[in-house]
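so im writing up the methods section and need the D-arabinitol dehydrogenase (NADP+) record in one place, dumping it here so i stop losing it
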Amino acid sequence: MDTMRAVVYDRPEHFTVADVPVPEPGPGEVRLKVLVAGVCGTDAHLHVGEFGPTYPLTPGHEFVGEVVALGDGVDADLLGRRVVVNNCATCGHCVECRRGRPVFCRNVAAQGVNAPGGFAEQVLTDADRCFVVDDLEPEVAVLTEPVACVVHGLDVLDLVPGSDVLLFGAGPTGLILTSLLARSGAGRLVVAAPTAAKLELASARGADVVVQLDRADPEGSQAQLRALAPDGFDVVIDATGALAVLGTTIGLVRDAGTVFVYGMAAEAAEWPVSPYEIFRRELTIKGSFAQQFAFDRALSALRNGRVDPVGIITERFSLDEYGDALAAVADSSVVKAVIVP
Ligand SMILES: [Zn+2]
Ligand SMILES: [Zn+2]
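--- predicted struct ---
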C-alpha cells in the first residue's frame, strides 16, 4: 500500500508526523497533492482541543493543491489543475442549510477540524468544493480561505459608507481586513497593533492612521485612540481574540455604534459587558464565523489586487516542522506561516 506523510493528532496537544495510507477518491471526490497549506490561529485552538476536533485528526483547513486522482463521476478536465478548496462540506438538508445558512450546518464536515485536512502530502476533497487557480501562485492562492472569511465578515458587518473604523490587529486577518475595509467605504480606517513592522504593512494596504499599542501601558494606548475619536468610532473591530482588547471596545465605540467580534477568543473566555450601556447607547455587538458563498469573491479580490498578498507569508515549514509552525503562530514577529509538504 502506498503511504504518505501527514500530521496526525490522537488527542489534544499530542501529534506525530506519521506515515499513513494514501487515500483513494470515492465518487465525486478528487485527491490533491498539497502544494501549500496555511497555518492560522484556529490551528492553535485545535492544538489544545478547542473548536470541536475529532480524532484522529489531520488539521489544515487552508490548502492549495494539484489534482492528481479523480473519483467516479468527476470531470476529467480537473486532472492536473491547481485548486483551492472550500474546506466545509455542508449537508444541505438540516434546518440551517435549508434556510440558506450553511455556516451553521448541524452536520458539517470541516476538513482540518473534524475531517482530514491539508497538513499532509495528499488529501481527498469533493470536486464540487474545488476552485481552479492555475493563474495564481500557490502562496497567493493559499490565502483564498482567510480572504473568504473576511469577505463573509464584511457581509455580516454591513458597513455604512463613510464610517469611522477602528481595527485592532494587524496579523494576516487584520491585514486582509485592512485591504478590504479601505476599499469598501470606510471614511477613515485606524489600525492598532503592538508590532511596528505589521503596522507598516497595514499602512501600505490603506490604513489612514496606525497606532502602535504599548502592552506595558494599556491606558496610555487607549487614551491615544480616544484622542483620535473623542466621540468614539462608528465601528470597532477586534481581530485579535484577546480579552484585554475586547475589554476596551465598548469604551471606544460611538453611541449607536457597532463592536465587531472577528478574532477567535478562547472557548471558555468571558467578557463583561454592561447591558445598561448597550441599552442606553443603542450599541450593536456582531460576530462573524468562517464563511459561506464567499470563495468566488475572495478569488476576485486576490486576482484584481484588492487584497495585496505581498509580505503576508513570512515563514515556511515542512510537515516534520509542524511544531515549529505552531510556535510561529504565537510569535508576534511572524505574520503568517505555511506548511510546504
Ligand atoms: Zn484559518
Ligand atoms: Zn446542514
